[in-house]
Design goal:
With about 200 residues, the protein is mostly helical. It contains 10 helices and 2 strands; from the N terminus they run αααααααααβαβ. Helix 3 packs across helix 8. It comes from Artemisia annua (Sweet wormwood). One of its GO terms (molecular function) is RNA-directed DNA polymerase activity.
């Protein structure tokens, strides 16, 4: 190990040696929770750190023309624009926030992340649903952008929102939850039958 001694190998010890034990960030629980969809979690992790390769970032690598946003065709492709200042994504985001019964006044990315951090409430069904929705929103917006860029495929905001709702419904339906009024409310809001266990 780091002190030069030999010890029996274990994954835990290797992780402890490699993990720098840095500070826990406020937003970590938005991403890293067992109910999240792994590919959504990874993309949200990149997005929260503004590390997605939007055209404004790619331009820093060389002298490239900036590309217009392929979702609205009215502004440049950038992280701040994509999440959720673009007319396409802002319409979608308003629908998401309405579904979650959350305030939609935050339009800048930092404000969105802050609002979700502030609404974190442990492992309640509402908290899980809100975090799933944030991660799925980011993942699906990025997917829609890339589908338009690389495949020339487009969805209307309504079709896009339906895909989002189906994604959330499928994930919620795959989870086991203890009965509560909040679970019943979630079933009504999302029009699904959840896997409710007793006790």
């Amino acid at each position: 190990m780091s002190d030069g001694s030999l010890k029996k190998f274990s994954i835990r010890m290797a992780y402890s040696e490699l993990h720098d034990g840095g500070d826990v960030v406020r937003w970590s629980k938005l991403i890293w929770f067992s109910q999240n969809i792994p590919k959504h979690a990874f993309l949200l992790w990149l997005a929260i750190q503004c590390k997605l390769p939007t055209q404004d970032k790619i331009r820093r690598w060389g002298n490239y023309d900036l590309m217009v946003c392929l979702l609205c065709y009215s502004d440049l492709d950038s992280h701040d624009h994509l999440f959720f200042n673009c007319s396409y994504t802002s319409k979608f985001w308003a629908k998401v926030m309405h579904k979650l019964k959350m305030d939609n006044s935050n339009t800048d990315w930092e404000g969105v992340v802050g609002a979700f951090v502030d609404s974190y409430n442990g492992s309640s069904v509402g908290s899980i649903t809100r975090r799933l929705c944030l991660a799925a929103s980011v993942y699906l917006v990025w997917q829609e952008r890339n589908n338009r860029l690389f495949k020339d495929e487009r969805r209307s905001v309504d079709d896009f929102f339906k895909c989002f709702c189906d994604t959330i419904k499928m994930r919620l339906a795959s989870l086991k939850m203890k009965w509560s009024k909040a679970v019943c409310d979630t079933e009504k809001i999302w029009d699904i039958k959840l896997n409710v266990i007793s006790g």
